[in-house]
Amino acid sequence: MLQKSTLDVVAAWACFHDRMSILKVRREKSEEHFKKIYEDAKLIMKSLDVIESTPRLSNKQINGPNPPSTNPEDYYRIALYNPLLDSILLDCQDRFKPDVKMHCLYII
């Protein structure tokens, strides 16, 4: 979508901000968005005869995630989904700061 030859910088910037706002909403409402993802994963796990479980948790964790959770869905949302979205959002914010937009517009 962002690689069309007829796409201009302003439209690409608007498209980028639309995608960022979608990711921010998914992060803010991660419980309901991850629930659908996890339900789909459970169907695949069932078809492959994989048992739903969480990794062993320790009382004293130094290296790695050890989130408090009551079930596997909460564990994977807190330990994987939320940090992944946070990482994507931070990376995009670092790469596409408002001053980058101004540099792109000056090139035109």
Low-confidence runs of at least 5 consecutive residues: none
User: Could you tell me the strand content as a percent range?
Assistant: under 5%
Percent in helix: 55-70%
Shape: elongated
Give Rg in angstroms.
19 Å
- The total number of structural domains is 1
The largest β sheet comes out as:
none
**What is the element string, with H for helices and E for strands?**
HHHH
Q: What would the average pLDDT be, to the nearest integer?
A: 82
Q: Which structural class fits the helix and strand makeup? A: mainly alpha
What is the first-to-last residue Cα distance? 20 Å
What is the number of E strands?
Answer: 0
**Counting H and I runs of at least 4 residues, what is the number of helices?**
4
Description:
By secondary structure, the chain is mostly helical. The chain has one domain (14-52, 69-107). Helices cover 67% and strands 0% of the residues. Helix 1 (9-28) packs antiparallel against helix 3. The longest helix is centred in the last third of the chain and has 24 residues, at 72-95. The two termini are 20 Å apart. 4% of the residues are buried. The model has no long low-confidence stretch (mean pLDDT 82).
Question: Can I get a quick summary?
Answer:
The chain has 108 residues and is an all-alpha fold. The chain contains four helices and no strands.
Q: Any descriptors?
A:
108 residues, 4 helices, 67% helix
